[in-house]
Write a structure and sequence with these properties.
By secondary structure, this protein is an all-alpha fold. 72% of the residues lie in helices and 0% in strands. The longest helix is centred in the first third of the chain and has 48 residues. The radius of gyration is 24 Å and the shape is elongated.
């Protein structure tokens, strides 16, 4: 195999690796976006449930759990460097 054949093979392998990495990055970004959309839906649903605008007995245990976790956080008091992430207080 000549010098140019080796360079061509290395170039092809590099291009394939780049394409694969690009696809992987795109998939990772899409998975992140889906997770973010679920979180936003959860926050909106929680707010509607707390306001009694939305009611479904199957969701109440989750609302209660979030309320309890928030009370525990509040009991700890403000933490240095912490900031509110737009969470809804019950």
């Amino acid at each position: 195999m000549g010098h140019m054949g080796l360079i061509d093979k290395l170039k092809d392998a590099g291009e394939q690796a780049t394409a694969s990495a690009r696809e992987s990055l795109q998939e990772t970004q899409l998975r992140h976006d889906v997770t973010q959309a679920y979180a936003e839906l959860g926050r909106a649903s929680y707010q509607l449930l707390v306001e009694k605008t939305l009611a479904d007995h199957r969701l109440q245990p989750h609302v209660d759990r979030i309320g309890e976790l928030k009370r525990q956080l509040d009991a700890l008091g403000p933490q240095p460097g912490s900031h509110d992430q737009g969470t809804v207080r019950p």
